[in-house]
Amino acid sequence: MNQQRLKILVSMVLVSICLVSTVNALGLGPLSLDVTIEKGKETDLIEYIGVLNPETKPIHVTATITGSIAEFVTVDPQEFDMPAGPGIGTGLPRPSQDVKVIFKMPREISENRYTGEIVFTQQPVEGGVLGTAVQLGVKVNLNIGKMATAEMPIYITGLTVVLIIFLIASIVVSIMRRYHE
Amino acid sequence: MSKLFYGIWIYSVLCLILVFLYGYYTEMFETKLLNYNLSLWSVLIVNIVLAIFSIISLKGPKLLPILGIIVVPISTYLFYASWTELSYVYLAGFIVIPIILLSVATIMKFYEKGSKQEVVPQRTIPTEPRTVTRKGMETNY
After folding, report:
1. Contact, B30 vs B39, CB < 8 A?
2. Contact between A125 and A58 (Cβ < 8 Å)
3. What is the pTM for the complete model shown?
4. Mean pLDDT in residue range A16-25
5. Which of A20, A87, A97, A136 is deepest in the core (most CB within 10 A)?
6. Res B47 pLDDT > 50
């Protein structure tokens, strides 16, 4: 019985070690982006994703966009190098890079929801121990909300009011003249 | 004049509706329909109304009908440009046109009616029927 418990404990420790090593391969935050934009309006929106290097060796990261969001979303920079980090548990700040996610939505869109993923690939670098590429993705949900309303400038509102006043005034003048006849 | 006055009034109301539609991006100007240039067609229809009323009224005073015919293409261009180039300056120009037309039409209507009222009707003085007496002629000296 005790031997079985020991086996379970050892396997749990092994699994957690495996998980820790996977998570620490590349630090990303946030892990999902939910964006809602108004329908029928050109929208330029910028969000940021933070990328951390917890490794003690320099890494090269490439960002690619997959899914239906690909036609509207771009990232800047698409590729970048990150210096070696201090490692886990040192308490020192790890090297980070902010990646700009640009949503450029045209007025004419057909769907009500676009989904996809921004995949960050950690490429092996020369001189590093890392042999295989590691990928981590940020899920992106792009929701098309209610119809946009134009924020009209004050002079347009003013001119509209003047037009309404003129319409009323002209009818009043017409009725008065007819009455006097 | 009366036809054109009401024509301009209807045109102004239609312009106002177009401005409200523009402001709220209703279904009319929505995405898929934009492919058919609905903004252009809608403003063309509105301006054709003005053009028809202007042409009909050409027999009377010429100023307002000619002004109406001139502003038709300008108004169409301004609204279409405001939609395609997303510029409110063009939209402002589009709103100014019915304001000008309406003010000119109202002033003209006011003075047209006013001048008729100022005309003093000729009073006919009732005269007694003249009787020709031929007394003198009948007298014989």
Report:
1. no
2. yes
3. 0.51
4. 50
5. A136
6. yes
A180 vs B113: CB contact, 8 Å cut-off?
yes
Task: Give just the sign of the alpha carbon dihedral B52, B56, B57, B58.
Answer: positive
Structure tokens at B59: 């027999």
Task: Say what the pLDDT of residue B140 is.
Answer: 46
A147 neighbourhood in chain B, CB within 8 Å: 24-26, 30
Interface touch A40/B30, C-beta < 8 Å:
yes
Give B130 to chain A, closest Cα distance, Å.
37
Report the percentage of chain A scoring pLDDT > 90.
13
pLDDT for residue B72 is more than 60 = yes
Cβ B16–A167 below 8 Å, yes or no? yes
**Residue keyed to tokens 């009707």:** B121
Contact call for residues A97 and A82 (beta carbons, < 8 A): yes
- For chain B, give every domain's residue range: 2-116
pLDDT(B105) > 70: yes
